[in-house]
Every structure is written in C-alpha cells, then in structure tokens.
Amino acid sequence: MLSRDGRWRGALRILTASIIVVVMCAGVAAAGHTAPKPTAKQLRKELARLQKQSEVMIADYYAGRVALQKAEKAEKVARSNLGRAQQDFEQAAEQIRLLATQRYRTGGVGTLPALMGGGDPAAMLNHLALTQQIVSEQDARLQGFAGVRDTYRDARAAAEKRTAELRASLEELGVQKKRTQKLIAEIKDRIDRIYPTPGLRRADGTWVPQLPSGPDNITPRTRLVRQLIAQRFGPHFGIGCYRVDGGIAGGGEHPLGRACDFMLSQGGALPTAAETARGEEIAAWTIKNAQRLGVMYIIFRQRIWHVRTGSWRSMSNRGGVTANHYDHVHISMY
C-alpha cells in the first residue's frame, strides 16, 4: 500500500466525523429548538478547518494518482516480461520434447552409423553419454526458464495487487473529497444566508432603491454583496464600486453607489484561464443569490444577465478588454 495510506485513512475518519458533526448540529437546531444557530464566526472557523483538511486530501489524492501511474507502468512491464519469459520457456520445452522424441525412436543410441563409430561399442557409449549430457543441459536450461517465468509471474501478481489497492484507495479518497467539497460549499451558503438583505422588497420581487451611505458611498445592499463576494472569492486585484462618473459606458449605477466591479486582472490585460474561471464562479454565485440579495443585472465577457429575464444575452463591442468586461465582473443592484 501507499506510505501515505495511514494519513489517508486518518483524514477520511476526521472528515467523516466532521460531516456527521455538521449534520447533527443542523438536525438538533431543527428538531430540538433549543440549540442556537451557529454564528458566522463559528461557521468560518469550521470552514477554515475543513478547507485545510481538503487541501491535504487533494495533495494526497494527486500524489496517489502519480503512484497509481507508476504502479500501472510496473504492471505493464511485468506483463511484457512474463510474456517473453513464457515464450522462452515454451521454446526450450519444445527443444526438450524433440530431443526426447528422437531418443525414444532410436532407443537412446541414435541411428546414424557414422556418428556411432560404425557400431563400435565404445563409440556408442560415447554418443549415449553425449546425448544424456545434452538432455541434462537442456533440462537445466528448462528449469532456469521456468524459474524466470515464475519470478515474472509473481512480479506481475504483486503489481496487479498494488494497482488494485491504489485504485481502491483513490476511489475512496475521491468520494470523500467530493463529499468534503460539497460540505464546504454548503457551509459557505449557510454563512451567506446568515446576513439578512437590507431594505424593502416589493411584491413583484424588485427592491425599493436605497441611498448610498458611509465613507465608501455605496448602499447597504451593495456593501453586503461586496462583503460576501470578497469573503467567498477573495479580492485579488481589487473591487471598485463608487465613482463619480459612470465610466466608459456612462451613467449606470456606480455614481449611485449601487454597482461594483470585481477585477480579475490588472492593467487592461486579458485574464488567465484560471482568472476567467473565477469570474464565471462569481457570476454563477451572484445569479444563484440574485433575487435574495437584490441584484438587478450582471455584465461579464461582453454579455449581460438581468434578473427579469434570467438569461444571458450578448452585448455590442465597446472596443476594449475593460469596456467589454472581460477583465472584471460588473454587478448592479436595485
């Protein structure tokens, strides 16, 4: 087994226990009506612990994949060597069989008078001794081939066993990794829901507009969305919300304190694939929570999503990376 198997199993036990604890806490809060709901601070502490364990598990998972690839390669080599050893063994066995057949047909002394000294007894004995020596040498050679074949057979069996054990460990670890990642996402969602959305919501689902306040000149709803996204995804290259002018597009919600730009890259450069993926995650999270948080629309990668339609549509080309919102996610609030 892997040298890290003990660590893997320990991590699995810890993670399983963590899942049970979180589920039990949720169940007690729902059924007993006495246990207080966990605070955001408590959930973030649990989240940090699970994320740390998840990082260790992910590192071990990929280390296990490397070990599995090596084991599979060793198994392939063992199979190839066994094939060659078996072929050599069969060729040697065929030689023994032919020689034994020849001795049986000749009574053990052969049939060629020229090789037997014309019937001379001494020559016949010499020839018989030579034949027996050949048989002995061939038999020793055959036993050697059989030993090599058996060695490779054992090596192949060991390689197959190790490969199977590694594959089983990785499958178990993969299942636990997915379960932990799901639990982490659920805890993040619970942290999000702890914060109530400020303001009044109309019957049609829209929100009553708010006035900006505070030194950052943004509305309470905008401030909450900025806080939640920063906590969940990190600020990285920065978050820009209030500005006097409406930017390249003009107007908009920035001067009203109802919009933020979540930057993925800087200097007007196109974001990397990883940064773009992070932008997609921010957009997806915002869409999921749009109605609850009072989001009006999202712009990203020359597309706009509006809460009224619930779908993306393309936008016209505004002539640049930033203008077309490739390097940031724009979120406007009611």
Q: What does this 3D model show about the protein?
A:
- By secondary structure, the chain is α+β, with helices and mostly antiparallel strands.
- The chain folds into two domains: 5-194, Helix Hairpins (Orthogonal Bundle), CATH 1.10.287; 220-333, no CATH class.
- The chain contains six helices and six strands; from the N terminus they run ααααββααββββ.
- The protein has a six-stranded antiparallel β-sheet.
- Strand 3 (295-299) and strand 4 (303-306) form a beta hairpin.
- Helix 1 packs antiparallel against helix 2 (40-106), helix 1 packs parallel to helix 3 and helix 2 packs antiparallel against helix 3.
- It is elongated and about 115 Å long.
Describe the structure concisely for a colleague:
By secondary structure, this protein is of the alpha+beta class. It is 60% helix and 8% strand.
Topology:
Blueprint: H1 5-31, H2 40-106, H3 121-194, H4 220-233, E1 239-240, E2 259-263, H5 273-288, H6 290-293, E3 295-299, E4 303-306, E5 311-314, E6 328-333
Antiparallel strand pairs: 1-2, 2-6, 3-4, 3-6, 4-5
Structural class: alpha+beta
Helices and strands, in order, run as: HHHHEEHHEEEE
Distance between the termini: 58 Å
Number of helices: 6
Strand content: 5-15%
Task: For this entry, give a set of tags.
alpha+beta; six-stranded antiparallel sheet; Helix Hairpins; 2 domains; 60% helix; 334 residues
